[in-house]
Design goal:
Distance between the termini: 71 Å
Largest sheet: 5 strands, mixed
Number of strands: 9
Length: about 550
């Protein structure tokens, strides 16, 4: 599939297969097998923690992982269920059920497709880092809190989903800790922690399952297993099915779908960026979003949960030699074979071992070192991090992302405002001021000529600032000509256009001429389409300040003679 032109969509698989060799396939095959094995316990754990069965977690990793690799814009990205979605998925299921989750995931996929087609991949990367760190740390703490029941064997049912009431219930029931379950969990945790110290290629989560599960089975330890909680696991991949969409359902689930889409976009592009830094390749961000969108459109038809790029599995792919999307496709095939052949054995895995796996995942997600480093940054960054973190933990991820994005916009606008300057000149002007030119050209302004220079984008915040300055700088004597110097204005928005048109019309009513100087071609085109060029006249739009001053002085001289 290759859509050129406006969309310019080309999956990385197509370009990677050019000049593909047997040697490359061998590397991808080994990496894919390793990643498939590493992904197995994570897919099961993420599925259970999200409130669905381990079967659904595996189906998501199989179908979603295949589509992300086959249709995405990164060579080594591994897609599947991730810890970031646990909180939002659990909340959607609690409120709207599995049908609601399927619809929300499908809608999120459509949003991701639109983001990719409209080239918003690069925009997502500009979300401030403190916001990303804040809700990632919040998700990590929330995941950790969901595993306490299974880790300590408290045996609690109907635990509150809210963070503070949940911990209230935990503290009231810590007296009923099951020591056997806790022992199994601690041994599992120890294996996961120590495995990388022996060899970084040892998948600690899988090793813990392979060691602890037979011990629990043969010693007949009284701990809850996957089979004990979910019964016999089916090995049939469900046939694709649809779901009913209507405006009432869409309105209800749109905020959740938007959250899934934004979170999926951020995590997948962050994973791709990290991968690019290691491999030296270059991700097509928009094609990656399209691949992620396709995965999230298809996966719910098989009963799956949301899919995104997984940083840990992607890095495992890279370190084991994977360099093309073929490795990701092999990983999906490996999981499919495990699903078809080994599901009866998966039923024997202790729930406390999976809890240990997720506790390590939450620790790795927390990024506490990054959080600590941000506390040395400006207070605004610290405030944003804390607000996003608390909103994620105390309320929910939907609110955290919505307010986080709002904070991102506010921070961006504030920084643009701080870096946009408006200067006023009254009698003399250096044409080379604030340039690299060594030759200075001093221009004399005739009486009645004022020059206003806008240094930065002329958008709604700056437009209001400029309008206020125009009002405050009007002296007792009415000027004859106002020159607006726009050499450093890269774009102008509708509010800027409106304010500029209002200024021109009010100035013309008062008999004041307005001359524009140094208008960039793209801004000039916007002015032409909005009819401001016709309002002013082409002779009042000059390409250089010297020409504009000559024109303004000439106009002022004619007015004075009258």
């Amino acid at each position: 599939m290759n859509i050129s032109g406006a969309f310019a969509y080309k999956p990385k698989l197509l370009t990677s297969l050019k000049g593909y060799t047997a040697s490359k396939f061998k590397d991808d095959l080994i990496a894919g097998i390793v990643v498939g094995i590493v992904a197995l316990p994570l897919a099961i754990a993420f599925g259970i923690a999200s409130g669905v069965s381990p079967t659904i977690g595996l189906i998501t990793a199989i179908v979603g992982g295949f589509i992300v690799s086959a249709f995405g814009g990164n060579s080594v990205q591994i897609g599947g269920p991730t810890g970031a979605f646990i909180v939002i998925v659990y909340g959607i299921i609690a409120q709207f059920g599995l049908e609601g989750l399927a619809i929300a995931t499908f809608m999120a996929g459509l949003i991701l497709l639109l983001m990719g087609f409209f080239r918003l991949g690069t925009v997502i990367k500009f979300i401030p880092y403190p916001i990303v760190v804040g809700f990632t740390a919040g998700i990590a703490l929330t995941i950790f809190s969901t595993q306490i029941n299974d880790f300590f064997g408290l045996g609690l049912k109907n635990i509150p989903s809210e963070f503070i009431p949940k911990w209230g219930v935990y503290f009231q029931n810590f007296g009923s800790v099951d020591l056997t379950t806790l022992g199994v969990a601690l041994v599992s945790l120890l294996i996961i922690i120590l495995a990388p110290k022996v060899s970084k290629k040892l998948p600690g989560a899988l090793l813990a399952i392979l060691i602890v599960t037979p011990v629990v089975y043969f010693l007949d330890l009284p701990v809850e297993t996957i089979g004990g909680r979910f019964g016999e696991l089916k090995t049939d991949i469900p046939l694709p099915h649809g779901f009913e969409l209507n405006m009432a359902t869409i309105n209800q689930l749109l905020p959740s779908a938007f959250t899934i889409a934004i979170l999926g976009a951020i995590e997948s592009l962050l994973s791709a960026t990290v991968a690019d830094g290691v491999t030296g390749s270059r991700t097509d961000s928009n094609s990656e979003l399209i691949g992620q969108g396709l995965a999230n459109v298809v996966v719910p038809m098989f009963g799956g949960i949301p899919v995104t790029g997984a940083i840990a599995r992607t890095m495992t792919n890279i370190t084991n030699g994977g360099r093309t999307p073929v490795a990701g496709i092999v990983h999906a095939i490996v999981l499919l074979l495990i699903f078809l052949l080994l599901m009866p054995l998966i039923q024997l895995v202790p729930m406390s071992t999976l809890a240990a796996v997720l506790i390590v995942v939450s620790y790795n997600m927390s990024g506490w070192r990054t959080v600590r480093s941000i506390f040395h940054n400006p207070k605004s960054d610290i405030s944003v991090l804390i607000v996003t973190f608390l909103l994620t933990v105390i309320f929910d991820l939907t609110i955290a992302i919505e307010i986080g994005l709002l904070l991102a916009v506010v921070l961006f606008l504030r920084r643009v405002m701080e870096n946009t300057d408006i200067r006023v000149y009254g009698s003399k002007l250096d044409a080379a001021e604030n340039t690299d030119l060594s030759t200075h050209e001093e221009l004399n302004l005739a009486p009645g000529v004022q020059v206003y220079e806008i240094d930065g984008p002329f958008f709604f915040g700056v437009a209001t600032k400029f309008d206020e300055m125009m009002r405050t700088t009007v002296g007792e004597e009415k000027p004859a000509v106002r020159i607006i110097r726009m050499r450093k204005v890269p774009f102008i928005d509708s509010t800027g256009l409106h304010n500029l048109e209002t200024l021109i019309r009010s100035s013309q009513t008062m008999g004041i001429h307005v001359v524009l100087s140094g208008v960039r071609p793209e801004v000039h085109e916007v002015l032409r389409k909005s009819h401001i060029v016709n309002l002013l006249g082409e002779d009042h739009i000059c390409n250089h300040i010297s020409t504009a001053v000559l024109r303004a002085n000439e106009i002022a001289g004619r007015i004075k003679e009258k």
